[in-house]
Amino acid sequence: MKEKKSNNTRVINLAVGPLLFLLCTTLLPHQYFSTVAARGAIGTIAWMAYWWITGPVDFAVTGFLPVAVNAVIQMADMGLVIANYADEIILLLLGASIITASWELSGLDKRIASFFLVMIGNELRSQVVFWFLLTTVLSAVLPNAVVCAAITPIAVSMLRYLGMEDIGESRTGSMILMTIAYGAGVGGMASPLGGAMNLVTVQYLEEVTGKEYIYWHWVIRFLPIMAVVIISNLIYLVCRCKKGENLGGSREYFVRQYHSMGKMSGDEKWGLGLFLAATVLSFTRQLYQDYLPGLKPAYVFIICAIIAFVIVKRDGSRLITWKSAEVKIIWDLLYIYAGGLAAGTLINESGAGKAIGEAMAALHLDGGFPTIFVIVAVTLLMSDMTSNTATAAVAMPIVISMVQGIGLNPVPYIYVATIGVNLSYMLPTSIRAIPVGYGMKPRFMLRHGVWLTVISIVSLSVTAWLLVTYWPSFSTI
Fold it and tell me: Could you say which residues form the signal peptide (predicted)?
Protein backbone atom coordinates (compact mmCIF):
# COMPACT_ATOMS: atom_id res chain seq x y z
CA MET A 1 0.00 0.00 0.00
CA LYS A 2 2.81 2.38 0.93
CA GLU A 3 4.66 1.55 -2.30
CA LYS A 4 1.50 2.23 -4.35
CA LYS A 5 1.05 5.61 -2.64
CA SER A 6 4.69 6.44 -3.38
CA ASN A 7 4.22 5.54 -7.06
CA ASN A 8 1.09 7.69 -7.25
CA THR A 9 3.00 10.64 -5.76
CA ARG A 10 5.77 10.13 -8.29
CA VAL A 11 3.30 10.12 -11.19
CA ILE A 12 1.71 13.33 -9.91
CA ASN A 13 5.09 15.02 -9.55
CA LEU A 14 6.06 13.89 -13.05
CA ALA A 15 2.90 15.48 -14.44
CA VAL A 16 3.15 18.74 -12.46
CA GLY A 17 6.52 19.63 -14.03
CA PRO A 18 5.33 19.90 -17.65
CA LEU A 19 2.05 21.40 -16.41
CA LEU A 20 4.00 24.27 -14.84
CA PHE A 21 5.79 24.70 -18.17
CA LEU A 22 2.48 24.93 -20.03
CA LEU A 23 1.01 27.38 -17.50
CA CYS A 24 4.03 29.67 -17.75
CA THR A 25 4.04 29.46 -21.54
CA THR A 26 0.38 30.47 -21.78
CA LEU A 27 -0.30 32.65 -18.72
CA LEU A 28 2.78 34.83 -18.21
CA PRO A 29 1.89 38.43 -19.15
CA HIS A 30 2.39 38.88 -22.90
CA GLN A 31 2.98 42.58 -22.30
CA TYR A 32 6.49 41.79 -21.08
CA PHE A 33 7.07 38.19 -22.18
CA SER A 34 5.95 38.80 -25.74
CA THR A 35 7.40 35.66 -27.31
CA VAL A 36 6.73 31.97 -26.75
CA ALA A 37 10.49 31.52 -26.38
CA ALA A 38 10.71 33.91 -23.41
CA ARG A 39 7.69 32.39 -21.69
CA GLY A 40 8.96 28.90 -22.45
CA ALA A 41 12.35 29.67 -20.87
CA ILE A 42 10.65 30.69 -17.62
CA GLY A 43 8.47 27.58 -17.87
CA THR A 44 11.53 25.37 -18.30
CA ILE A 45 13.05 26.81 -15.13
CA ALA A 46 9.79 26.15 -13.25
CA TRP A 47 9.68 22.58 -14.58
CA MET A 48 13.31 21.90 -13.61
CA ALA A 49 12.93 23.47 -10.18
CA TYR A 50 9.87 21.36 -9.41
CA TRP A 51 11.49 18.12 -10.51
CA TRP A 52 14.70 18.94 -8.65
CA ILE A 53 12.73 19.61 -5.45
CA THR A 54 10.34 16.64 -5.65
CA GLY A 55 12.71 14.19 -7.32
CA PRO A 56 10.39 12.06 -9.52
CA VAL A 57 13.45 11.36 -11.71
CA ASP A 58 17.16 11.45 -10.92
CA PHE A 59 18.50 14.97 -10.47
CA ALA A 60 20.97 14.50 -13.35
CA VAL A 61 18.12 13.55 -15.69
CA THR A 62 16.41 16.87 -14.93
CA GLY A 63 19.66 18.52 -16.00
CA PHE A 64 18.94 17.46 -19.60
CA LEU A 65 15.52 19.13 -19.77
CA PRO A 66 16.84 22.33 -21.44
CA VAL A 67 18.03 20.24 -24.40
CA ALA A 68 14.80 18.26 -24.69
CA VAL A 69 12.46 21.23 -24.36
CA ASN A 70 14.54 23.44 -26.64
CA ALA A 71 14.39 20.76 -29.32
CA VAL A 72 10.58 21.00 -29.31
CA ILE A 73 10.14 24.74 -28.72
CA GLN A 74 13.28 26.51 -29.88
CA MET A 75 14.12 29.17 -27.33
CA ALA A 76 17.83 29.48 -28.10
CA ASP A 77 20.38 28.25 -30.60
CA MET A 78 20.85 24.56 -29.75
CA GLY A 79 24.60 24.87 -30.20
CA LEU A 80 24.72 27.40 -27.36
CA VAL A 81 22.60 25.14 -25.15
CA ILE A 82 24.67 22.02 -25.84
CA ALA A 83 27.93 23.92 -25.24
CA ASN A 84 27.03 24.15 -21.55
CA TYR A 85 27.52 20.39 -21.18
CA ALA A 86 31.21 20.81 -22.08
CA ASP A 87 31.70 24.11 -20.27
CA GLU A 88 35.10 24.81 -18.71
CA ILE A 89 33.69 24.37 -15.21
CA ILE A 90 32.34 20.94 -16.18
CA LEU A 91 35.88 19.94 -17.17
CA LEU A 92 37.20 21.36 -13.89
CA LEU A 93 34.70 19.31 -11.91
CA LEU A 94 35.52 16.19 -13.93
CA GLY A 95 39.25 16.63 -13.37
CA ALA A 96 38.77 17.17 -9.64
CA SER A 97 36.50 14.13 -9.43
CA ILE A 98 39.11 11.90 -11.15
CA ILE A 99 41.93 13.08 -8.90
CA THR A 100 39.92 12.61 -5.72
CA ALA A 101 38.86 9.14 -6.90
CA SER A 102 42.48 8.12 -6.28
CA TRP A 103 42.14 9.24 -2.66
CA GLU A 104 39.70 6.48 -1.84
CA LEU A 105 41.85 3.87 -3.57
CA SER A 106 44.96 4.87 -1.61
CA GLY A 107 43.28 5.64 1.75
CA LEU A 108 44.19 9.34 1.54
CA ASP A 109 40.53 10.24 2.05
CA LYS A 110 40.63 8.78 5.57
CA ARG A 111 43.84 10.65 6.42
CA ILE A 112 42.40 13.98 5.23
CA ALA A 113 39.13 13.32 7.04
CA SER A 114 40.76 12.57 10.38
CA PHE A 115 43.05 15.60 10.03
CA PHE A 116 40.12 18.01 9.64
CA LEU A 117 38.17 16.33 12.42
CA VAL A 118 41.16 16.73 14.75
CA MET A 119 41.70 20.35 13.68
CA ILE A 120 38.09 21.59 13.74
CA GLY A 121 36.42 19.16 16.10
CA ASN A 122 33.23 17.20 15.52
CA GLU A 123 30.69 19.79 16.70
CA LEU A 124 28.43 20.78 13.80
CA ARG A 125 28.42 24.49 14.67
CA SER A 126 32.23 24.63 14.63
CA GLN A 127 32.28 22.79 11.32
CA VAL A 128 29.74 25.18 9.77
CA VAL A 129 31.62 28.28 10.91
CA PHE A 130 34.97 26.90 9.69
CA TRP A 131 33.83 25.88 6.20
CA PHE A 132 31.77 29.05 5.70
CA LEU A 133 34.63 31.39 6.63
CA LEU A 134 37.22 29.36 4.69
CA THR A 135 35.26 29.45 1.44
CA THR A 136 34.22 33.07 1.95
CA VAL A 137 37.84 34.21 2.32
CA LEU A 138 39.08 32.15 -0.63
CA SER A 139 36.28 33.21 -2.98
CA ALA A 140 36.98 36.88 -2.25
CA VAL A 141 40.00 36.66 -4.57
CA LEU A 142 39.28 33.50 -6.57
CA PRO A 143 36.45 32.34 -8.84
CA ASN A 144 33.58 30.93 -6.79
CA ALA A 145 33.32 27.75 -8.83
CA VAL A 146 37.02 26.94 -8.37
CA VAL A 147 36.76 27.41 -4.61
CA CYS A 148 33.61 25.32 -4.28
CA ALA A 149 34.95 22.58 -6.57
CA ALA A 150 38.24 22.39 -4.66
CA ILE A 151 36.87 22.51 -1.10
CA THR A 152 33.77 20.31 -1.43
CA PRO A 153 35.66 17.02 -2.11
CA ILE A 154 37.70 17.55 1.06
CA ALA A 155 34.55 17.90 3.15
CA VAL A 156 32.97 14.92 1.37
CA SER A 157 36.00 12.77 2.26
CA MET A 158 35.55 13.74 5.90
CA LEU A 159 31.82 12.93 5.84
CA ARG A 160 32.29 9.57 4.14
CA TYR A 161 34.98 8.66 6.64
CA LEU A 162 32.30 9.15 9.29
CA GLY A 163 30.02 6.71 7.47
CA MET A 164 27.83 9.24 5.62
CA GLU A 165 27.83 7.47 2.25
CA ASP A 166 24.39 8.88 1.42
CA ILE A 167 24.83 12.56 2.25
CA GLY A 168 21.26 13.28 1.16
CA GLU A 169 20.00 11.30 4.13
CA SER A 170 22.30 13.11 6.57
CA ARG A 171 21.17 16.49 7.87
CA THR A 172 24.62 17.26 9.25
CA GLY A 173 26.38 16.29 6.03
CA SER A 174 23.95 18.28 3.91
CA MET A 175 24.36 21.30 6.17
CA ILE A 176 28.16 21.28 5.73
CA LEU A 177 28.05 20.95 1.93
CA MET A 178 25.39 23.64 1.64
CA THR A 179 27.48 25.92 3.86
CA ILE A 180 30.47 25.55 1.53
CA ALA A 181 28.40 26.54 -1.51
CA TYR A 182 26.89 29.52 0.31
CA GLY A 183 30.27 30.70 1.60
CA ALA A 184 31.78 30.51 -1.89
CA GLY A 185 28.91 32.60 -3.22
CA VAL A 186 29.05 35.21 -0.47
CA GLY A 187 32.82 35.72 -0.66
CA GLY A 188 32.72 36.58 -4.34
CA MET A 189 31.20 39.97 -3.54
CA ALA A 190 34.20 41.12 -1.48
CA SER A 191 36.42 42.08 -4.42
CA PRO A 192 36.34 42.41 -8.22
CA LEU A 193 38.48 39.26 -8.40
CA GLY A 194 35.70 37.21 -6.79
CA GLY A 195 34.15 36.31 -10.13
CA ALA A 196 33.42 37.30 -13.71
CA MET A 197 30.14 38.95 -12.66
CA ASN A 198 32.14 41.56 -10.73
CA LEU A 199 34.35 42.26 -13.73
CA VAL A 200 31.17 42.90 -15.73
CA THR A 201 30.15 45.39 -13.03
CA VAL A 202 33.55 47.11 -13.19
CA GLN A 203 33.20 47.44 -16.96
CA TYR A 204 29.87 49.25 -16.59
CA LEU A 205 31.20 51.46 -13.80
CA GLU A 206 34.05 52.56 -16.08
CA GLU A 207 31.64 53.16 -18.97
CA VAL A 208 29.25 55.41 -17.03
CA THR A 209 32.03 57.41 -15.34
CA GLY A 210 34.70 57.41 -18.04
CA LYS A 211 37.33 56.62 -15.40
CA GLU A 212 39.53 53.63 -14.61
CA TYR A 213 38.20 51.68 -11.63
CA ILE A 214 40.57 51.16 -8.71
CA TYR A 215 39.96 47.72 -7.20
CA TRP A 216 40.64 48.59 -3.58
CA HIS A 217 37.79 51.14 -3.77
CA TRP A 218 35.48 48.17 -4.27
CA VAL A 219 36.74 46.48 -1.11
CA ILE A 220 36.10 49.62 0.96
CA ARG A 221 32.59 50.20 -0.39
CA PHE A 222 31.51 46.60 0.04
CA LEU A 223 33.04 46.16 3.50
CA PRO A 224 29.85 47.09 5.42
CA ILE A 225 27.75 45.00 3.02
CA MET A 226 30.07 42.01 3.50
CA ALA A 227 29.85 42.42 7.27
CA VAL A 228 26.04 42.31 7.17
CA VAL A 229 25.82 39.35 4.80
CA ILE A 230 28.47 37.27 6.61
CA ILE A 231 26.99 37.90 10.06
CA SER A 232 23.39 37.33 8.97
CA ASN A 233 24.24 34.16 7.04
CA LEU A 234 26.35 32.74 9.85
CA ILE A 235 23.72 33.50 12.48
CA TYR A 236 21.09 31.69 10.42
CA LEU A 237 23.30 28.66 9.70
CA VAL A 238 24.54 28.33 13.28
CA CYS A 239 21.01 28.69 14.68
CA ARG A 240 19.92 25.84 12.38
CA CYS A 241 22.45 23.58 14.12
CA LYS A 242 21.01 22.02 17.25
CA LYS A 243 22.91 22.60 20.47
CA GLY A 244 25.32 19.76 21.03
CA GLU A 245 24.77 18.35 17.53
CA ASN A 246 27.92 16.68 16.24
CA LEU A 247 29.21 14.48 13.46
CA GLY A 248 29.81 11.48 15.70
CA GLY A 249 32.85 10.20 17.56
CA SER A 250 35.08 12.20 19.87
CA ARG A 251 38.13 14.34 19.26
CA GLU A 252 40.28 11.92 21.27
CA TYR A 253 39.15 9.06 19.01
CA PHE A 254 40.05 10.97 15.85
CA VAL A 255 43.43 11.93 17.28
CA ARG A 256 44.18 8.24 17.91
CA GLN A 257 42.98 7.31 14.44
CA TYR A 258 45.12 9.98 12.81
CA HIS A 259 48.29 8.94 14.64
CA SER A 260 47.65 5.25 13.99
CA MET A 261 47.81 5.79 10.22
CA GLY A 262 51.57 6.17 10.22
CA LYS A 263 53.47 7.80 7.38
CA MET A 264 51.94 8.67 4.04
CA SER A 265 52.29 6.04 1.34
CA GLY A 266 53.59 6.90 -2.12
CA ASP A 267 50.07 6.53 -3.54
CA GLU A 268 48.72 9.02 -1.02
CA LYS A 269 51.49 11.51 -1.80
CA TRP A 270 50.74 11.34 -5.51
CA GLY A 271 47.00 11.83 -4.97
CA LEU A 272 47.52 14.75 -2.61
CA GLY A 273 50.31 16.27 -4.71
CA LEU A 274 48.27 16.31 -7.91
CA PHE A 275 45.27 17.87 -6.17
CA LEU A 276 47.41 20.51 -4.47
CA ALA A 277 49.25 21.27 -7.71
CA ALA A 278 45.97 21.76 -9.58
CA THR A 279 44.53 23.88 -6.77
CA VAL A 280 47.60 26.07 -6.31
CA LEU A 281 48.00 26.63 -10.05
CA SER A 282 44.32 27.55 -10.29
CA PHE A 283 44.55 29.93 -7.35
CA THR A 284 47.71 31.65 -8.69
CA ARG A 285 46.71 31.96 -12.34
CA GLN A 286 47.36 35.69 -12.33
CA LEU A 287 51.09 34.98 -11.93
CA TYR A 288 51.42 33.11 -15.23
CA GLN A 289 48.38 33.98 -17.34
CA ASP A 290 50.42 36.36 -19.54
CA TYR A 291 52.82 33.52 -20.45
CA LEU A 292 50.30 30.67 -20.63
CA PRO A 293 46.96 32.35 -21.45
CA GLY A 294 45.30 29.05 -22.31
CA LEU A 295 46.15 27.32 -19.05
CA LYS A 296 42.92 28.08 -17.20
CA PRO A 297 41.91 26.30 -13.96
CA ALA A 298 39.68 23.81 -15.78
CA TYR A 299 42.53 22.65 -17.99
CA VAL A 300 44.96 22.51 -15.07
CA PHE A 301 42.67 20.01 -13.32
CA ILE A 302 42.26 17.95 -16.52
CA ILE A 303 46.04 17.85 -17.05
CA CYS A 304 46.61 16.70 -13.47
CA ALA A 305 43.87 14.08 -13.92
CA ILE A 306 45.64 12.76 -17.05
CA ILE A 307 48.92 12.59 -15.11
CA ALA A 308 47.16 10.46 -12.48
CA PHE A 309 46.43 7.85 -15.17
CA VAL A 310 50.07 7.89 -16.35
CA ILE A 311 51.77 7.38 -12.96
CA VAL A 312 53.15 3.88 -12.36
CA LYS A 313 53.72 2.74 -8.78
CA ARG A 314 56.74 0.82 -7.52
CA ASP A 315 54.97 -2.53 -7.88
CA GLY A 316 54.34 -1.82 -11.57
CA SER A 317 50.62 -1.12 -11.23
CA ARG A 318 49.09 2.23 -12.16
CA LEU A 319 47.98 4.80 -9.60
CA ILE A 320 44.52 4.82 -11.15
CA THR A 321 42.87 3.31 -14.21
CA TRP A 322 39.77 4.41 -16.08
CA LYS A 323 37.96 1.28 -14.97
CA SER A 324 38.61 2.08 -11.30
CA ALA A 325 37.95 5.81 -11.77
CA GLU A 326 34.70 5.75 -13.74
CA VAL A 327 32.73 4.12 -10.92
CA LYS A 328 33.87 6.82 -8.50
CA ILE A 329 33.47 9.90 -10.70
CA ILE A 330 30.47 11.99 -9.57
CA TRP A 331 28.67 11.96 -12.93
CA ASP A 332 25.50 13.43 -11.42
CA LEU A 333 27.44 16.53 -10.44
CA LEU A 334 28.48 17.23 -14.04
CA TYR A 335 24.99 17.01 -15.51
CA ILE A 336 23.22 18.89 -12.72
CA TYR A 337 25.71 21.74 -13.06
CA ALA A 338 25.46 21.69 -16.87
CA GLY A 339 21.65 21.69 -16.69
CA GLY A 340 21.72 24.85 -14.59
CA LEU A 341 24.04 26.54 -17.09
CA ALA A 342 21.83 25.46 -20.00
CA ALA A 343 18.74 26.83 -18.25
CA GLY A 344 20.54 30.14 -17.87
CA THR A 345 21.30 30.15 -21.58
CA LEU A 346 17.58 29.73 -22.33
CA ILE A 347 16.73 32.66 -20.04
CA ASN A 348 19.23 34.99 -21.68
CA GLU A 349 19.00 33.93 -25.32
CA SER A 350 15.20 33.83 -25.35
CA GLY A 351 14.90 37.38 -24.08
CA ALA A 352 13.27 36.30 -20.82
CA GLY A 353 15.98 37.97 -18.73
CA LYS A 354 15.59 41.24 -20.60
CA ALA A 355 11.80 41.02 -20.21
CA ILE A 356 12.17 40.68 -16.44
CA GLY A 357 14.33 43.80 -16.41
CA GLU A 358 11.86 45.74 -18.54
CA ALA A 359 9.06 44.76 -16.18
CA MET A 360 11.17 46.12 -13.33
CA ALA A 361 11.77 49.38 -15.22
CA ALA A 362 8.04 49.75 -15.86
CA LEU A 363 7.42 50.15 -12.12
CA HIS A 364 8.43 53.84 -12.45
CA LEU A 365 10.50 53.89 -9.26
CA ASP A 366 11.99 57.13 -7.91
CA GLY A 367 15.37 55.96 -6.60
CA GLY A 368 14.39 55.62 -2.92
CA PHE A 369 14.13 52.53 -0.75
CA PRO A 370 11.52 50.79 -2.97
CA THR A 371 13.92 51.13 -5.92
CA ILE A 372 16.77 49.60 -3.95
CA PHE A 373 14.55 46.81 -2.63
CA VAL A 374 13.33 45.89 -6.13
CA ILE A 375 16.86 45.94 -7.58
CA VAL A 376 18.23 43.66 -4.84
CA ALA A 377 15.24 41.30 -4.97
CA VAL A 378 15.04 40.98 -8.75
CA THR A 379 18.78 40.51 -9.33
CA LEU A 380 19.05 38.00 -6.47
CA LEU A 381 16.13 35.95 -7.79
CA MET A 382 17.49 36.13 -11.35
CA SER A 383 20.82 34.79 -10.09
CA ASP A 384 18.96 31.72 -8.84
CA MET A 385 17.63 31.06 -12.35
CA THR A 386 20.83 31.65 -14.29
CA SER A 387 24.53 32.24 -13.66
CA ASN A 388 25.70 35.26 -11.69
CA THR A 389 27.67 36.51 -14.69
CA ALA A 390 24.69 36.23 -17.02
CA THR A 391 22.53 38.10 -14.49
CA ALA A 392 25.11 40.90 -14.36
CA ALA A 393 25.25 41.15 -18.15
CA VAL A 394 21.45 41.37 -18.40
CA ALA A 395 20.63 43.44 -15.31
CA MET A 396 23.33 46.13 -15.28
CA PRO A 397 22.37 47.97 -18.49
CA ILE A 398 18.70 47.89 -17.47
CA VAL A 399 19.44 49.30 -14.00
CA ILE A 400 21.65 52.01 -15.51
CA SER A 401 19.07 53.11 -18.07
CA MET A 402 16.27 53.01 -15.49
CA VAL A 403 18.19 55.18 -13.00
CA GLN A 404 19.50 57.61 -15.61
CA GLY A 405 15.94 57.93 -16.90
CA ILE A 406 14.87 59.49 -13.60
CA GLY A 407 17.93 61.77 -13.55
CA LEU A 408 19.99 60.02 -10.83
CA ASN A 409 23.64 59.02 -10.56
CA PRO A 410 23.76 55.33 -11.62
CA VAL A 411 26.96 54.44 -9.69
CA PRO A 412 25.39 53.61 -6.29
CA TYR A 413 22.61 51.62 -7.98
CA ILE A 414 25.19 49.58 -9.91
CA TYR A 415 26.70 48.70 -6.54
CA VAL A 416 23.23 47.82 -5.25
CA ALA A 417 22.59 45.54 -8.24
CA THR A 418 25.94 43.85 -7.61
CA ILE A 419 24.63 42.62 -4.24
CA GLY A 420 21.86 40.60 -5.85
CA VAL A 421 24.06 39.53 -8.76
CA ASN A 422 26.48 37.84 -6.33
CA LEU A 423 23.99 36.15 -4.02
CA SER A 424 21.63 33.23 -4.62
CA TYR A 425 20.51 30.47 -2.32
CA MET A 426 17.54 28.41 -3.46
CA LEU A 427 18.01 26.39 -6.66
CA PRO A 428 20.83 23.99 -7.66
CA THR A 429 22.10 26.24 -10.42
CA SER A 430 25.66 27.56 -10.74
CA ILE A 431 27.92 26.51 -7.81
CA ARG A 432 24.90 25.36 -5.80
CA ALA A 433 24.77 22.35 -8.12
CA ILE A 434 28.03 21.07 -6.60
CA PRO A 435 26.65 19.95 -3.20
CA VAL A 436 23.61 18.47 -4.95
CA GLY A 437 25.93 16.52 -7.23
CA TYR A 438 27.57 15.04 -4.15
CA GLY A 439 24.22 13.86 -2.79
CA MET A 440 22.53 16.74 -1.00
CA LYS A 441 18.83 16.93 -1.84
CA PRO A 442 17.69 20.13 -3.62
CA ARG A 443 14.67 20.49 -1.34
CA PHE A 444 17.05 20.74 1.63
CA MET A 445 18.74 23.70 -0.05
CA LEU A 446 15.39 25.23 -1.03
CA ARG A 447 14.06 25.01 2.53
CA HIS A 448 17.03 26.91 3.93
CA GLY A 449 17.54 29.03 0.82
CA VAL A 450 14.08 30.59 1.02
CA TRP A 451 14.82 31.89 4.52
CA LEU A 452 18.27 33.16 3.59
CA THR A 453 16.86 34.81 0.48
CA VAL A 454 14.27 36.71 2.54
CA ILE A 455 16.83 37.60 5.22
CA SER A 456 19.33 38.81 2.62
CA ILE A 457 16.85 40.85 0.58
CA VAL A 458 15.52 42.67 3.66
CA SER A 459 18.80 43.20 5.53
CA LEU A 460 20.85 44.16 2.47
CA SER A 461 18.17 46.46 1.05
CA VAL A 462 18.17 48.38 4.32
CA THR A 463 21.98 48.40 4.41
CA ALA A 464 22.24 49.56 0.79
CA TRP A 465 19.64 52.32 1.36
CA LEU A 466 21.62 53.61 4.35
CA LEU A 467 24.83 53.61 2.30
CA VAL A 468 23.22 55.37 -0.67
CA THR A 469 21.57 57.95 1.60
CA TYR A 470 24.27 58.68 4.17
CA TRP A 471 27.67 57.71 2.67
CA PRO A 472 28.72 60.03 -0.18
CA SER A 473 31.64 57.78 -1.20
CA PHE A 474 29.19 55.00 -2.05
CA SER A 475 28.05 57.14 -4.96
CA THR A 476 31.52 57.42 -6.49
CA ILE A 477 34.12 55.02 -7.88
Answer: none
